[in-house]
Amino acid sequence: MHALAAAPAVPAPLWLVDILHPLTLVLHFVAMNVLVAAAFVLATARSGEREIQRVAAGLLPSSFSMTVTLGVAPLLFLQLIHGERFYASSIHMAWPWIAVLFVLMGGYYAAYAVGGRLDKGREASLALRALPLVALLVFSFVLTANVALSEHPAAMAAMGTPGWNLGIGDTNVILRWSHELVGAVALGSLVFFVRGAFRRPHDADMAATFDRRGLAVLLGATVVAVLLGVGQLLVRPSDVGGARAGASLGMGILLGLLLPFLAWRYVRKPTLRSLVVVVALGLLVVVAKALLRLAIRARLLATAGVDAAPETNVDVGPIVLFVVMLVVAIVCLTWLVRVGLRAARTTTLSETP
Amino acid sequence: MFPVLSPEGVGLPGLIALIAVTHVFVAHFAVGGGMYLVTTERWGRKLGRPGLVGHAERHSRFFVLLTLVFGALSGVGIWFAIGLASPDSTFFLIRTFVWGWATEWCFFLIELTAAVVYYKTWRRIDDKTHMAVGWVYALASITTLLVINGILSFMLSPGAWHETKSFWSGVFNPTYWPTTFLRLGVCAFVAGSFGLFTARHVVADDDRRLVIARAGRWIVSGLVVAAACFVWTRSALPADAAGILERSLDGARGGVPLLATLYRLGGIAFGVLFLVGLVCAVAKPTRLPRAAALGLLALGLFGFGCAEYAREVLRKPYSVRDVIYANGIYRDELEHHREVGFLTSTPEAHLLQGTDDLAIGDALYRRQCAVCHTLDGYRGLDGLLEGWDTNRVGTFLTVMSKQDPARAAIWSSMPPLAANQREVDALRTWMLARLKP
């Protein structure tokens, strides 16, 4: 309420937040892209494609957890800098905002249920397989609507009784949501190339199947994402004005169009080197997406006359604590991932006749 | 200026309580359960009993499903809910403790990855490495508790932070250590309760007996530690909160009857759990019916809910003691609002130009009362005002709108009214209109 005037200053230099926010957002996007692509492939796989279904279902639980957990940090930095607007937009759409959590939880458990059925050699119905994707569609729509509304203070100010105001008419949200979602499917499809590469030494046919599926999803989703992106540009060209947004957009388009071509080359002649290039390029597109997202927010707020650079009062001690713990976390995570990969390789070998 | 959500029915506190209590219960299981898992595995391997190791393996699947799915999402749910109900307090805490949360996030990442690797690598890596993964999980999850409890206990007892405004004084506040050990005790008893629940899947009677007895020991020892630390916490409470607790338990004027009820109900629930845990630890039964195990979990959740609710009540009228009231108004700005009016700085300021006192009163209710009260649902005003007359409404508003010592003795858990005389008069009109003849 009025108390905002007394809210404490940001206890960090803004340049540090400007580094950490996009960095953590990129990590979140990577996991989210894998999650959305896996959910898409699981829902669209034919009933006979058990192995494709099994791999997609196997990716879901951990990518779900990773997406949620990796999303905590960017959400934290978003609140740190844009708390006033983000809480206000959340309150405007309070009921959908709370309800989507339960939807997401249903999708999450459905992912486990599908995996369990397939692991036991049973069939998972299309309805069950589609549930994670449906949950993600609903969740991502409300999340996009919330973030978009928080970037349009004038639209919020004009809103009536809070609770159900999604702000759909004011914020170009449908195009934005569908573009980001389809883009996520495209980028996340790269995970099937990686799974194929793991499979190749033991089952070249199955690896080729993964590669083909990955390529088909990548190509199809890229075409749709480009069309939606063009639509967004035509509807609201001013959103991506300015040097930062323009550069990120240009980089995203260029790399995004190059990606299917390189992926096609990889599928024709799969080598580790070309896979690394494809995945690295995919990561760069994610970086461009994250930077574009933040640049658009900065531009929209600046256009709305919002000063999004709060006062700072740097407190070094807690920052040092965070940095040290981040290093500890990176060391632990590296070790854990190595253990996990070693186990995965062992399993694949032992499962091979 | 945030928009105000004023839902009826369960209200915002009810919504938060629903999400928070279940989440925090599962979060304590995530901490205690990690230690339970890895020590069970170690114990089974040491004794050379595959049945016990198998129990740890099955338990880990249940553990991952519950903590990673429900725990993780309901944790995000708490963020969502408190941002809706108390945006000012949430914003204040984010700005003050952002690096605490960022540090906790580092350990969330370790915790999550370790949980997945631990669960997925049973019999796929050597025993020593598998247990090392379990220990990494257990230590990471305990660290998350050490961090988050700094923020939770700060809200109850900021202590020296008022003078220093330092992150460290905020985290290491007067109730930090007692509540940290209290929560660790709770983690142990929750882990033991869940251990009893999954024990029925142990095939061999001998193994099952051992598992049940061990889970019983976890419950008993956890509750003993928690009880001792509760006494310690009481002694570390800020004087006014300790006074409220004492008066409540004595049934004296100025106490909060609800607090005494929660205290007793929680005590009964934990007492029953302690006895069952003791029977399991000593008598070592070979079976525990599923319904009984479920009942114990429900009882634990109920007792836990009472304790968390009591903690919330003890913190009232503040959301952060001596800084922000539960309705989001900063204590330092109270006098300002009383001088120039509260609604003047809200989108409802235009109401003050007119003469519609009911509308002004309604706006004040929504901005200052609706965070805790509904009209006719949870903590409904209509019910609370039953039997009130003009005089009582007048006395109430006089007490709440003045720096009156009587307030502490009557409505001690309510934030004072931040309003000038014009607004108080309008609120009086609004309240009188709600009185039933």
- Under CATH, the topology of the largest domain in chain B can be stated as Formate dehydrogenase/DMSO reductase fold
User: Quick one: overall form of chain A?
Assistant: globular
Count of DSSP helices of chain B?
Answer: 17
The general outline of chain B is elongated
The percent range for strand residues of chain B is under 5%
Q: Which CATH architecture of chain A?
A: Up-down Bundle
Structural class of chain A: mainly alpha
Number of structurally distinct domains of chain A = 1
CATH-defined architecture of the largest domain in chain B: Up-down Bundle
Radius of gyration over C-alpha positions of chain A, nearest whole angstrom: 21 Å
What is the first-to-last residue Cα distance of chain B? 37 Å
Instruction: State the share of residues found in helices of chain A, binned by percent.
Output: over 70%
Q: Which residue ranges of chain B are poorly predicted, with pLDDT under 50 across at least 5 consecutive positions? A: none
Tell me what you see in this structure:
The complex is a heterodimer of chains A (353) and B (437). Helices cover 80% and strands 0% of the residues of chain A. Chain A has 353 residues and is mainly α. Chain A is globular and about 60 Å long. Chain A starts with 13 loop residues before the first helix and ends with a helix. Chain B folds into two domains: 11-318, Formate dehydrogenase/DMSO reductase fold (Up-down Bundle), CATH 1.20.1630; 331-434, Cytochrome Bc1 Complex, Chain D, domain 2 (Orthogonal Bundle). Chain B has helices at 11-47, 50-85, 87-120, 127-156, 161-164, 167-171, 176-199, 205-236, 239-250, 257-283, 290-315, 334-340, 357-369, 381-384, 390-401, 405-410, 421-434; strands spanning 318-320, 324-325. In chain B, α1 (11-47) runs antiparallel to α2 (50-85). The longest helix of chain B has 37 residues, at 11-47. Chain B is elongated, with a radius of gyration of 25 Å. The model of chain B has no long low-confidence stretch (mean pLDDT 91). The chains are: A mainly alpha (353), B mainly alpha (437).
